[in-house]
Amino acid sequence: MARKKIIAGNWKMNMTPSETVSLIETLKPLVKNDEVDVVFCVPAIDIIPAMEAAKGTNINIGAENMYFEEKGAFTGEISPDMLVDAGVKYVIIGHSERREYFAETDETVNRKVLKAFEHGLTPIICCGESLTQREQGITIDWIRQQIKIAFLNVSAAQAEEAVIAYEPIWAIGTGKVATTGQAQEVCRAIRDCIGELYGAGTAEKIRIQYGGSVSASSAPELFAQPDIDGGLVGGASLKPDFGQIVNYKTAKQQ
Ligand code: PEP
Fold this sequence. Notes:
The chain is of the alpha/beta class.
């Protein structure tokens, strides 16, 4: 069975609660498309108003991060139960900005992934190489290592529900999109790695996104690649362009 595409916006640290409501009002008619899963990953404080604003639409609300403990003295953190109680289904784990600015490691990513599954949340697990690593020719080795650690102790049944976002760090927020060939090559390598870990059945089911300066004009070719099952979109997810990205098959390109 063909994998359903999943197109997720990562709002990062943008939008106040009231701005959230008006952005969702603007975007909701534009992102209608039942052929793909549409997710808006929003800042924690925006989750409740976003959930309310998206009621009755095809928009799923996701979180941008989550802690790996249940509860307690972890000032400023958000627990899995808090997300579940708010109605969240998806949570981004290990975005490169979290790794770079908030000291997240492959090990903490793995703990968060396990905790997300324990609570029935679907993790969108981010991986990606730096420009230096790409130039050194170690992209695939690096990504395979990130994937293997992220999936430690994750069962096959859980793994097939996971979403992986391949996001070359040099392409995030820079306007530099990986070529479709580069993106497809790494997404294929990720699927092969999942196949080695869990078998071909799981590899065929897991959804792998590309992220990094995806735009209305680059989305159609990227999402047509055999191993790219949608995108994780930063900047363009805050604009009406996101509607064109979600409707990449039919939207009129400018
Ligand atoms: C991201 O935040 O995950 C991302 C890919 O950002 P952008 O689309 O702006 O490069």
